[in-house]
Amino acid sequence: MKLQSGFNNFFAMIMIKNPWVTFSLFFLLATFIPNVHKLLNSEMYLKMLVQIPAYSILSFIIGLKLRSLNNKVILQISKHGSSALIFLFGSQTFWMIPRSLDLSVYNEAFAILLPLNLIGAGFLFGIAFKSAPFVLKTAFSIYGLAMFLAMGIIYINFNSLICAVFSIEMQHLAGKYILYVFPFVFVLFLYRLFYNMSKLTEEIIIQ
Amino acid sequence: MKRSILLPLTIFFVWIGVILWWTGGFRHFTSYSYAMYRAGTPPRNMPDLKMVDYDQKNIDFNRWKGKYILVDFMYLHCSSVCGILRSRLYDYQKELAPYLKKNLVMVSVSFDPQRDTTTILKETWRSLGAEPNWIFASLKGTNEEIINEMYKFGIVIIKTPEGDFNHTTMHYLINPDGKLIKVIDPSSGKDKTLHEITKWIQ
Question: What is d(CA B100, CA B106) in angstroms, rounded to the nearest whole number?
Fold first, then answer.
């Protein structure tokens, strides 16, 4: 009965109340279609700039929207913003290690573990997002941006193969595309940072 | 609201521990480096590799016990780095000629026996000067067996969707007792590589 009511809530949210959840779920499931999955694993830039971010970001959006469900488990999770953020960050760091990336392409167990881990981490962080401290979110964002930029510079400049499953040309191409994408991500980060800072300032003034 | 820091700190340190273990102490981030770390630092025993040479004879490294063996692993259909390394080895064989007459053997081993047949190995050997102490051979077994065996040796071989292999590109120096004593990175340059080889075999 409880499971039925929870499923009905979720279904109503998807189909009626929130197109973001529909959109995110659709694209998340699309990454698992065999041909799409094969394509995303075949090019380094697709893996790094589409597949891995898609798992985290789309599941984050679903988690963010599902916060409003009246559910005990979700309410409990939503209190642990810092833990969820650190778990997500640790997961992303793990999968950025070249050896982990290699295994996620040619090893079946790791090919399953990657989406499970990142989707789980993104989803939990989406639920607990609002309770994560602003300072912690900002600090991890800055660190994440720096790592992203460093990755692009290393991939484009290194003439030795870092990931064994891709070629040196793919590595350089991935570096180039990371450097193309970086400014947009940076501007988005700055926008969110100033927006959140202005909100914080307003709250302080009101208090 | 009083925030508990115990759970986030625990998760943080768990992740640090996982990554520390996964990378062998934050030192081995790539598959190549980790495979060499797992195989162990030299000197170490050689795995028992079964090969067939360009004369279709079954061989293994024990055949050259009493001599130094300079081994490289490659495949002849490589469209990238193997050709460059082979031409470097061709240059080395001239510099190492006095040692090749005395106490050194060079062995180039293909891990793609399906395509690198003994005929092709022999043709390649002839095109590179037919030095009698530079042997071309290929490993025996299926691709999967060879890849697993090579990993134990510290060599990563990954087949790409295009049918090529991405693989470790190192030279391995085995001493007259049959122990692997040095792994040499050829990307350090011709002079440095030659120096690394000759300082052991003199």
Answer: 8
Q: Compute the distance between CA of residue B132 and CA of residue B176 in angstroms, rounded to an integer.
A: 18
Decide if A83 and B7 are in contact by the 8 Å CB cutoff.
Answer: yes
DSSP 8-state code for residue A92: H
CA-to-CA dists, residue A36 to A27, A46, A47, A50, B202, angstroms: 11, 11, 11, 11, 56
pLDDT tens string A60-108: 999 998 887 778 888 899 999 999 999 999 999 999 999 999 999 989 9
Q: Which residue of A has its CA nearest to B157?
A: A164
Per-residue pLDDT tens digits for A72-83: 888 899 999 999
Domains and CATH numbers, chain B: 1-39 (no CATH), 43-201 (3.40.30.10)
Cα nearest neighbour of B10 on chain A: A83
What's the structural domain count of chain A?
A: 1
Task: Give the number of other Cβ atoms within 10 Å of residue B91's Cβ.
Answer: 12
Domain range holding A162?
2-206
- ipTM value: 0.86
Q: Which residues of B fall within a CB distance of 8 Å from A93?
A: 15, 19
